[in-house]
Batch of 3 targets.
Target 1
Amino acid sequence: MDKFTKSSHVVLTSHREHVFKEVPRINWNEEDPKKRGPIIATISNKSHRNAIGTHSGSYTVYRALSIASGHFQKEHKPDLKDTHGTVRIGPHPSWFEKNRIVTMDPWGAEINEHFSDQIDKGLDIRPSVAITQARLKIPEIQEAIAKKRLTPDGNIISKEGDIKITKVAIEPVWFLPGIAERLKIDEGELRKILFQETGGMFPELVTRPDLKVLLPPIGSNTAYIFGDPKNLSNPNIELTCRVHDECNGSDVFGSDICTCRPYLMWGIEDAARTAQKGGAGIVIYFRKEGRALGEVTKFLVYNARKRQEGGDTADKYFYRTECVAGVVDARFQEFMPDHLHYFGIKKIHNLHSMSNMKYDAIVNSGIEVGNRLSIPKELVPDDAQVEIEAKKAAGYFTDDKVDDTNLDKVKGRDLD
Ligand SMILES: [Zn+2]
């Protein structure tokens, strides 16, 4: 038997009898982590699994390629010594409220602390949250220091102008009954559509209704915390927050068709400033590129906007997206507040966002919002005027006076 044939023996866990009877059940909102039970999405022993999917989100596929190419040992078990978080988050009462958090595992950073007995017995339980610290070196922050909007204090901002932060990487862990409830649909219907629309990727969605947790093959999210993370949950301590959805072109490469990087940098600047005053700041970065429609769709829309009759104008901004993608937005902000509840946030004093969908989702999830801050005019790149004017006219929050009578005159650059 050659190596490939031997390793290609496939065991599906689409039958209940494949479940090892000692595998702990998941009791999602249970307060005691031991009673809640670990999420086990191991692929090394299928009978140990109590969840659908596997760890690492979309990177699962790269792991598979590493194994296929012979570079990665299929049976590798992670050595988690010294990997624990630099600070402890929670537990917060929000973790145990019914379906307050349904898209991540709040115990995901404390696998060794709570589930070491089961790990010792041979269950492959892995972290889905990791907490570390870093320094941010950002040109816009250096500029804010040069213009005296920020002052190094040797603590939050070093004398070199670096910002000290705690960062938390969060993998998606979906509690399907809670997701269905949030979307106001039947769980069975949700499972069927997830199964169909991923090309049948996870048969257990339809064959194993007893498995309630899915680790979907999507990107993880990252929270950047400014100041003491413990302060996030104290509603009496000023909190500045930006919940930012990925836009690689602007965030990383400085592409000027939108306001994403300027808005993100302004959020970081203000979060640092709040922390310097004894408050706290949090910027959460969600991997939802191009309104969760993806970058290919996004670039197609850019071309369609710039080639349409009359050029790229604010009045047709949302329309062109809908023509190409079928929807204007696929981000489902209803799930975004889960991450705020993970940190025990009860009040956001300064919310950096113009999006009503984000604001409504946060407020409807029980978090109080004080000030809403739109991006200052001087930070909007010329070619992004189309986006910003279209958003304002569509009812996005702004401090400015809204004039939607001349949207066809707000025009972006033509293609060369
Ligand atoms: Zn953008």
Target 2
Amino acid sequence: MGKEQLKPPYFARLLNGHILNHVFHSLLFLVGLSLGIIFSLLYLNAFSFNSQASILSPLLPPSPSHLMHNMDDDELLWRASMVPRVVKCPYKRLPKVAFMFLTRGPLPLGPLWEKFFKGNEGLYSIYVHMHPSFNLTIHEDSVFYMRRIRSKIVEWGKPNMGDAEKRLLSNALLDFCNERFVLLSESCIPLFNFTTIYNYLINSKESFIESFDDPSGNGRGRYNKKMLPAISVSDWRKGSQWIEVNRKHAIEIISDNKYYELFQKHCIQHNCMDEHYIPTLANMLFATQISNRTITWADWSRRGKHRPAELEGASISIEFINHIRYGKNCTYNGENTTICYLFARKFMPDTLQPLLQLRPPLLEL
Ligand SMILES: *[C@@H]1O[C@H](CO)[C@@H](O)[C@H](O)[C@H]1NC(C)=O
Ligand SMILES: *[C@@H]1O[C@H](CO)[C@@H](O)[C@H](O)[C@H]1NC(C)=O
Ligand SMILES: *[C@@H]1O[C@H](CO)[C@@H](O)[C@H](O)[C@H]1NC(C)=O
Ligand SMILES: *[C@@H]1O[C@H](CO)[C@@H](O)[C@H](O)[C@H]1NC(C)=O
Ligand SMILES: *[C@@H]1O[C@H](CO)[C@@H](O)[C@H](O)[C@H]1NC(C)=O
């Protein structure tokens, strides 16, 4: 019985029958629909500037495909400060960490960072703020290729440092996948592999902002009474410039103009903006949500110096690195941990080779 049904005449009959006719029409409809979708996608794609991802795959939120926009700072801050009010996110998004490099010139430790990022595509984005007149050729294969943002001149210790930090945060906020934002300099190194650092940051309940009251001349001494009544000396805090924040706090920082204007006007002493603005702002706006410690290590052991030590190639050894990695106890999400630092500075260019040659390798952990 089964055999008979498979004979060709059966199919010939079917071909003229209603069933196949129906199937045929359905197929035709589906082909037409697909073509329509494909053409509209192609059409839309050709005219979209920065939302390719969202059109090609509804699973991904729109990520800016290039960083060279024409927005001035005001427009950039305004766009970056927008927050979706619908709580449920329609995209399946993998949260990314934004690595924001605030540098004077090139990145002498670039090869180390290339190794660090390798194999972790999709979990990070890089932003580089560099002196605008610096001409740098970056190879297409580099993770830093096309990651330079529109930058302006920065004088270390001067108020325009705050502008550069806000510019970096704003560019990084334009990518909705970025969940954590870490500020780094050209002398910074990672202390652990990408996976360890990524998990530490993504799972943290706090932003890593150091913020403490320093009664000395380099702390409260930099406070200016003209900031009253908005900022009193009891609000005043000091802390490392090298911060790491979550998305919510990044938006708070770039959206603040009230306190920022007071800092620009009245905080003109050296290092006033970079060491006090964010620690004070965080203390005033979200004090209970920060770690009060920095995750970027520096060598302050030389007494009486206002700057951390600059580390040379000769000082690099695995013992030294492990001392930085595990030499302190602190808390993480309310638990004790020996991993307090994820990054370290100030590593001079001649530390690159010793760092790459460490055994066991620096980035194995
Ligand atoms: C970069 O290149 C431009 C034009 O090619 C030149 O005017 C400028 O001086 C260069 N800057 C540096 C720092 O070399
Ligand atoms: C940081 O200090 C504030 C008080 O200034 C406190 O509320 C907060 O709990 C501290 N954060 C941690 C992680 O201890
Ligand atoms: C950190 O805590 C552990 C266990 O509580 C202790 O053995 C170690 O000495 C501490 N390390 C430092 C640097 O205080
Ligand atoms: C964490 O360390 C402190 C001392 O630094 C200790 O008093 C406390 O009991 C520890 N907490 C846990 C959960 O081990
Ligand atoms: C990164 O470090 C963790 C923790 O030490 C380790 O388990 C993991 O295998 C390392 N990953 C890579 C890719 O080296």
Target 3
Amino acid sequence: MWKEKVQQYEDQIINDLKGLLSIESVRDDSKASTETPVGPGPREALDYMYEIAQRDGFATYDVDHIAGRIEAGKGEDVLGILCHVDVVPAGEGWDSDPFEPVETDNAIIARGTLDDKGPTIAAYYAIKILEDMKVDWKKRIHIIIGTDEESDWKCTERYFQTEEMPALGFAPDAEFPVIHGEKGITTFDLVQHSIVDDKDEPDYELQSFTSGERYNMVPDHAEARVLVKENMTDVIQDFEYFLEQNQLQGESLVDSGILVLTVEGKAVHGMDPSIGVNAGLHLLKFLSSLNLDNNAQSFVAFSNRYLYDSNFGEKMGMKFHTDVMGDVTTNIGIINYDNEQGGRFGVNLRYPEGFDFDKAMERFKSEIDHDGFKIEIGKVQVPHYVDKNDPFVQTLVQTYRNQTNDMTEPYTIGGGTYARNLDKGVAFGAMFSDSEDLMHQKNEYITKKQLFNATSIYLEAIYALCVEE
Ligand SMILES: [Zn+2]
């Protein structure tokens, strides 16, 4: 019956979605102002959602033009549906204009179809259809719309400074069935602080070392520049042998007396570094076999003692596992050294509920002090978790099963979704197991089947949560 309901709205859903997709709602700080806090595009997309809501008779509420909500229902508790209308830049290589939606027999192609404009319109229509059915609401509903999800979440930060936190909610910004837990996500730097006096005559002086640019990626390239005073050929031979032994790609060349060594690794997302190859840590491993100057020696020794071949925090004394959320993971995403400033490792550590991050940092801090290193803590996001047996989660899962017959269990991830902005929130769709994931890629599209099926699932779920209960 839910699918038939949605059928009556197919044309309207597509029209409203195409209108939203036509707005180039990419963050543009060069045009930011109080009127357009993250640029004119995201603001225009937010206003567009207000316009269709007002056309359909819903109240809207704006929060500083960076976020806002569409309101429906009545009752004590609020169900929050957290969406966003900003998109990542189009990038190169599209077969059509990314901001002129192309409708084919079974799909719509444009930037934002999957992330997150399609799911936003699907969730909106679930509410609209129920409203048209004149249901007797038992909860209030806030469709909360952000405009800065793809960058800094300034939208939700500002929104929840003043606005009501929903009692429960979901973000239609990931996958079905339900993502009910997300690890804590932290970044910190391990910084060499005591630069020691050099010993008399090191054979090799490490002048600089660079690898990686982002905390949350495994670096796939590393470069070291070494001043070699003698035995240049031996070092090059040893390096070739090292590459072969470790099945790595790399190169050596001599550039006006300086030996330049590079290693290529394999870049993967930092949430699971064990499936990548960290070019930087491998190159440091090789450098540790040379009789380097003192500072460089303590830099490379640090890498071997605490970081090399240790993707689960083992060597930092941070190994931790829960059956529900898995392991602590540690990615060394950025590695830098120069012979005047010393060295620095940028770490992205992700941890399950139950891991005491502060205590682990305290302990590690005192351990590495003797090695001449200190810790500078960056961003810390605590784990986000809703029990999968919670009736709320079970209702969402049951709805999904009713309509798909897919018995996949709710699961947890190492990444972060928009749902973590809610106190009690989960990610719920709108990707199905057979959807092609082209989020943030060229030729992003949503099939009409996916769009309508998601709408139908949201419709039944919201009915169960806000009308039946
Ligand atoms: Zn998104």
